Amino acid sequence: xxxxxxxxxxxxxxxxxxxxxxxxxxxxxxxxxxxxxxxxxxxxxxxxxxxxxxxxxxxxxxxxxxxxxxxxxxxxxxxxxxxxxxxxxxxxxxxxxxxxxxxxxxxxxxxxxxxxxxxxxxxxxxxxxxxxxxxxxxxxxxxxxxxxxxxxxxxxxxxxxxxxxxxxxxxxxxxxxxxxxxxxxxxxxxxxxxxxxxxxxxxxxxxxxxxxxxxxxxxxxxxxxxxxxxxxxxxxxxxxxxxxxxxxxxxxxxxxxxxxxxxxxxxxxxxxxxxxxxxxxxxxxxxxxxxxxxxxxxxxxxxxxxxxxxxxxxxxx
Length: 317
Description:
By secondary structure, this protein is α+β, with helices and mostly antiparallel strands. 48% of the residues lie in helices and 15% in strands. Strands 2-3-1-10-11 form a five-stranded antiparallel β-sheet, sandwiched between helices. The chain has a two-stranded antiparallel ribbon with strand order 4-9. Helix 1 packs across helix 3. The longest helix has 38 residues, at 273-310. It is flat. 14% of the residues are buried.
């Protein structure tokens, strides 16, 4: 009877996996290390109506996907990434929004002996509030301290763990004594699947402005290369035309060749005083604006002085 129930449960699980992949075009592959059952329940609640979380044994998930490859061969791209303690988060909504929801679900956790540090852990300089009898404990970890008002004070910031370090019993005890919970755990997105494509979650941080800037940079590089080798393209054509026009102006300025666009530069060369006139004309609006600001400032000062005089009182009033 137990075997029949287990077989029926597996069959239901396979059907559920296939239905989810058929219904949802997008999903995350997430790591679930150090995520407890209560936290997982809270995550499911926060994603309700937005995404569906599916966990299970890797062998069962692989088997379910392999059995569905005939209908959706693109799912084969997921198989190399199903390793470790992982699961799926299916969604029809915006991937960045769901990813942000997963990040919000992280909770602080104390350092436990044997855990792998995912980040740098630094103990800040502080008064620990611990008595002098704990001094030897800090000395064993080479942490500089002093006694201040009957309690131990850490003099400098002390880095205690680096990413990838294994948390020892001493480090865990010290962090717990100082009420420091350095780590935060939650569902960590490792890969993103979207309509047959699989990519890193960092791609979700790329904005249209970033794509536009990269494209413009690429066009500028292409134009520079084409100009240097003398190979005309759509990207380099405007620059080639502009450079050619500059050459024509230079020729017209030194010869008797005349055309409409060269009239102004020839007049400036014949009468250099026009340069000064043009410069003064452009400087006049700026000077006028500065003068107006000075007049306004003087007006405000005079008004404030008048107000001060009106508020004065005589000695015998």
